[in-house]
Design brief:
Blueprint (H helix, E strand, L loop, with lengths): L1 H7 L14 E3 L17 E2 L8 E7 L5 E8 L4 E4 L9 E6 L9 E5 L2 E3 L13 E4 L18 H6 L6 E6 L15 E8 L1 H8 L8 E6 L15 E6 L2 E12 L9 E5 L4 H8 L6
Amino acid sequence: MSVLVWFVSLLAFVSARTWPDVPVTHSIPEAAPTVQQRIVNGSSASVHQFPWFVSIRSQARNGLQSICGGSLISTEWVLTAAHCTHNYVSYNLGFGSNNLNSPLKSMTSTEAIEHLRYNPDTLNYDISVIKLPEHIVYSTQIYAVRLPTLNQARQGQFHTTKARVCGYGRTGDGTQSLSTELNWVDKRIITNDQCTRSYGPTIVQPSTLCTLGWDNNSQSTCNGDSGGPLLIDEGGLWTQIGIVSFVSNQGCASGHPAGYVRTTSFLNWISINTGIAIRP
């Protein structure tokens, strides 16, 4: 439970050691927001703008809870970060709403599959899937996001591409509260070499993807956004290329890169564990 302890302890950031910035994950103990604000320097989501987005309230055996995001990838599977399921025993899932406390549909799952190589210290292989207790029925308000193709896995690094991320996370470094309102922000994908200069090669693996803000570097995800999807627009169809994983210990709005799981690195893993066929 070491990841959760960071946030129980008033989100205290650890000191830098081998590299300038030590990443911290984005999960956060559930707390009642006092205001409705925005993902750090982003925008409020419109109704059903992200019909695949799933809110996740993870519950541990000792009663501790945390908030994460996820994405619906089929009628029975949700994709999220491994640190959102690690050492938790149940997951309350909310679908079809841009308000954290008023999901259109909700259900509770007790079945998650975490990558066997997940390392909570380095956040390598920070990927997990949650199986729904029943199939969900697609509608205009709730349906699955597209996964990348095998061709994108072979060729795409997505450098300089505009991507979009959404979540209910903190809206700034000065607040401990989550947002009850779903928010989003556009990001610019950077090279792993650039990201390694901030976090070092132990953290930034080939399966890591990093971004900076599209308009300015202070646009970012924050605590509570973990597990949510990083998306690219392909002719009006949205494809998930990343999973929110970590941010700099210098703060969400510090201007340092944000880190994600590179979805294209795990297409075979997703397919094997969920039975979802990956597009060629």
